Amino acid sequence: MLVDTARKLLRIMYHFYGHFRRMPTLRELARLSGRTPGSILLGCQELLREGYIEWQPLIGT
User: Fold this and answer.
1) Do 49 and 9 touch, CB atoms closer than 8 A?
2) CB within 8 A of 36, min separation 6: which ones?
3) 26-33 helix and 37-50 helix, angle to the nearest 10 degrees
4) How far apart are CA 3 and CA 17, in angstroms?
5) Helix or strand or coil: residue 32?
6) Structure confidence by residue, pLDDT tens digits, 32-59
7) Is the full-model pTM beyond 0.85?
8) Cα gap 2→18, rounded to integer Å
C-alpha cells in the first residue's frame, strides 16, 4: 500500500503522460503536487521500490 505522496505522484505522472506524452520534471511535480522536492524524491523511491515505475536519474544534468 502506497503512502499519500507516492500515490499522488503516480496519478500525476499517469495523467501528465497521457496528456503531454512525456514524464513531468521534478519542478512540474512540485508545482502540481504541492510537495517539496525532497518529499517527491522519497515518493519516487517508494514507487521504484514497489515496482510501479522504472527510473534512472540522469547523470550530469
Assistant:
1) no
2) 30
3) 100
4) 21
5) helix
6) 999 999 999 999 999 999 999 998 877 7
7) yes
8) 22
